[in-house]
Design goal:
Layout (H helix, E strand, L loop, with lengths): L15 H7 L3 H4 L12 H8 L12 H24 L3 H19 L6 H18 L6 E8 L8 E8 L8 E7 L6 H14 L3 E6 L16 H12 L5 E11 L1 H12 L6 E5 L13 H11 L7 H7 L12 E6 L7 H11 L3 E6 L10 H14 L8
Parallel strand pairs: 3-4, 3-5, 5-6, 6-7, 7-8
Antiparallel strand pairs: 1-2, 2-4
């Protein structure tokens, strides 16, 4: 171990100044409790940010995120070195999973060098694939075609099935990425909840998502992509599309609401996790989040962003949809709770709203409780449970 990590001159620590600056992100760094998806430990945070330059703690600046990227790449390399030396499959897998997580957080909110960000995301996937031992889960990769789109027309999706065998087709859940999430980390972490509860999980990457982020522009009309994905899924006879649900997180929650209204007969239920009918005023978003939206939508002229975000607002008025559950933090600073309440009242139908009073965007402090709430709500819809 000393050959990997030199004995430090002092105990590793997270300084008060650094903790104060990045404290908002720490629950995001420790996202969920996955067994397959890449995940950090608290020690990763301490060692990555130990000695972080306190002269560049402005989270709105490019300099901060460049230093952040460097710190997390160094921590990833530590885990990769450990993976190389590991003799056992379990130790190697754990080191690769942690390396993948570190590489994701290295590219998170880093927009200055597109090639660098793309390379880091590719390394996340490489490390994740090498880490897989599956523990009985089966994951299969497929492609599907999106016609009439000017950029890449072929996209990837993955189907994971639970560890136990089953003679009947699997009930399933389709998950949508958020704006800056990555399929292997946040979305798969959420998906593991459904796997543990007897549902197959479908993950996909449309334009501007996953490895497509920065290569093609995110489509607000993702329901058009989902409609063509459903055609491809109909070929997977081991999936029961009559018992298919949809969950989107953050901006993916907004996309899930769009899909619920555009494809009302496709899903038995829809979960909007911290999305809403409209993004808060562009002028009131944090500086880095403004860049996040612009990067995802492929916009180089930031003066166009207010008009773009305003154009995304979902229409009011009665809309046909499957049962919808919206889970929202009272202090969400991206999708205002008041906007969501007003939209639900306008749309009507079976739309339940659960508000976490002490939480902000994605309810990170009570994420396990939110997932329990979602699974419990689905069970109340009398959806047939998967049988062993």
């Amino acid at each position: 171990m000393n050959a990997l990590v030199p004995v430090p001159a002092r105990r590793a620590r997270l300084s008060p100044a650094v903790f104060e600056a990045v404290g908002y992100f720490i629950p995001r760094l420790l996202f969920g409790d996955p067994h397959i998806a890449p995940k950090l430990s608290w020690g990763d945070i301490v060692y990555a940010l130990d000695g972080f330059d306190e002269s560049c703690l402005d989270l709105g600046s490019a300099l901060f995120w460049d230093r952040w990227r460097e710190a997390w790449e160094r921590r990833a390399n530590t885990h990769l070195a450990r993976a190389e030396l590991a003799r056992g499959v379990a130790a190697r897998s754990l080191s690769l999973r942690r390396a993948a997580a570190c590489l994701h957080w290295a590219e998170f909110m880093y927009f200055e060098d597109r090639q660098c960000k793309a390379r880091l995301r590719e390394r996340v996937r490489e490390c994740f694939k090498q880490s897989l031992t599956f523990d009985g889960y089966r994951m299969t990769e497929y492609t599907f075609t999106v016609s009439g789109h000017p950029s890449a027309s072929t996209y990837r999706y993955w189907v994971l099935t639970p560890a136990r065998s089953r003679s009947e087709p699997w009930p399933c859940a389709l998950l949508i990425n958020g704006l800056d999430s990555i399929t292997e980390v946040e979305v798969l972490t959420l998906g593991e909840t459904f796997l543990r509860n007897g549902r197959a999980v479908i993950l996909f990457e449309g334009p501007g998502q996953g490895l497509e982020l920065g290569r093609s522009a995110l489509r607000a009309d993702m329901e058009m992509v989902i409609a063509q994905l459903l055609v491809a899924l109909a070929q997977r006879r081991y999936l029961d599309l009559s018992d298919l649900g949809l969950l989107g997180v953050s901006f993916g929650g907004y996309l899930a609401l769009r899909a619920a209204h555009a494809l009302p007969d496709a899903f038995g239920w829809v979960v909007n996790f911290s999305g809403g009918p409209r993004v808060r005023s562009y002028q009131n978003l944090p500086r880095r989040l403004k860049q996040d939206f612009a990067y995802a939508f492929g916009i180089t002229d930031l003066a166009r962003m207010p008009e773009l975000l305003d154009s995304l607002a979902l229409p009011e008025g009665s809309r046909a949809s499957p049962p919808i559950l919206s889970v929202h933090g009272a202090f969400d600073d991206i999708f205002a709770l008041a906007d969501l309440r007003a939209a639900i009242a306008s749309w009507g139908g079976h739309h339940r709203l659960e508000v976490l009073e002490g939480e902000a965007h994605v309810c990170l402090h009570e994420l396990p409780e939110c997932l329990d709430l979602i699974i419990d709500w689905i069970s109340t819809l009398h959806t047939p449970e998967a049988q062993p």
